[in-house]
Amino acid sequence: MMAAMAGPPLLLTTTEVAELLQVHPKHVYRLIKRGLPAKRVGGEWRFDRVAVLGWAGQPAEPVDQPTAAAVTNAALLAANGDVAIEMLVDHVNASRPPWLGFVRADRDRALAMLSRGEVLLAGSHGRGFPRSAAGVRLARIHLVVREVGLVAPRGDDVPALVQLGKLAFAYRPQSAAIVVHFEQAVAQAKLDPTKLLRKATLLDSHQAVATAVASGRAQVGLTTRAWAHRLGLEFRVIASESYGLLVRATQLGDPLVVRVCEAAQSSTLRAVLAEIPGYDLGDIGSIRYDIDDAAHSAA
């Protein structure tokens, strides 16, 4: 469990700055035009507490430093290892500490880790995005809309769904949200999923699936177009889905979350991801508050 941090937060919302300076929240926007230090996080303003107090000519209040355990737990991202996630983490860690660590986890496990306060960010996709976890309001940093589907070795035809039961199939556990798209495609084709999965082997990541097909250990796999491209595999799309990072809404002002948003919105990351097929980069780095994002998961 993440240790509690004593003292006021370092980055404040507009409402918190209004309370700190004892002004109406709308007046904060006027102060920004007069030079009040502020930065954009998605579509919202965030403020450094010390800088605000210094600008206002008030003495800074002492802020207790988080414990080592809190820093360790907070600075983690749990996700399945999407290519975009790997590149995002590299961009966040290219400049300065605190560093963002990575924990490989399916969507369900990542959300559970976020609920317990074990990670700062959790990858989410496929089944719509939850509004809350363990009674805590969540926000989402939107990254990409990505294509998912079947892959086959280079030069081979990607098999039709009806053929899968005869082939060594690199598949994913039920906790992996990508299986929802496969099940929907199978239902639409009026096929029996148990017959299609006769020779299926469950693997714990997109990378593992793509590697199994590339090495010849599997004849077909279920993964993303981005991983197919990385390993030179043939690809057939099944569906497109929104992919993003969940964070506790109260932690949007965390310095590391701010850096993640800045890295996602940067032209350098966008240029790198634009070279990879299977990604729609519109609104990358934007902050969203979800009710149900199932529409983004439609094929």
Write down the Rg: 22 Å
In the CATH scheme, the class of the domain at 148-240 would be: Alpha Beta
> How does CATH name the architecture of the domain at 148-240?
3-Layer(aba) Sandwich
- CATH homologous superfamily descriptor of the domain at 148-240: Periplasmic binding protein-like II
- Estimate the global geometry from the Cα principal axes: elongated
Strand content: 15-25%
What is the helix/strand order? EHHEEHHEHEHEEEEHHEHEHEHHEE
CATH fold group of the domain at 148-240: D-Maltodextrin-Binding Protein, domain 2
Which sheet architecture does the biggest sheet show? 11 strands, mixed
Give the helix/strand class.
alpha/beta
**Number of helical segments with 4 or more residues:** 12
Low-confidence runs (pLDDT<50, min 5 residues)? 1-9, 63-73, 292-299
Averaging pLDDT over every residue, what do you get? 85
Q: Percent helix among the residues?
A: 25-40%
Q: How many beta-strand elements? A: 14
Oligomer: single chain
The rounded distance between the terminal residues' Cα atoms is 38 Å
SSE order and pairing:
Blueprint: E1 11-12, H1 14-21, H2 25-33, E2 39-41, E3 44-48, H3 49-55, H4 68-74, E4 76-79, H5 83-92, E5 101-104, H6 107-115, E6 121-125, E7 132-133, E8 136-152, E9 169-171, H7 178-188, H8 193-196, E10 200-202, H9 206-215, E11 220-224, H10 225-230, E12 234-248, H11 255-265, H12 267-274, E13 279-280, E14 287-288
Parallel strand pairs: 4-5, 4-6, 9-10, 9-11
Antiparallel strand pairs: 1-3, 2-3, 6-12, 7-8, 8-11, 8-12, 8-13, 8-14
Helix pairs in contact: 1-2, 5-11
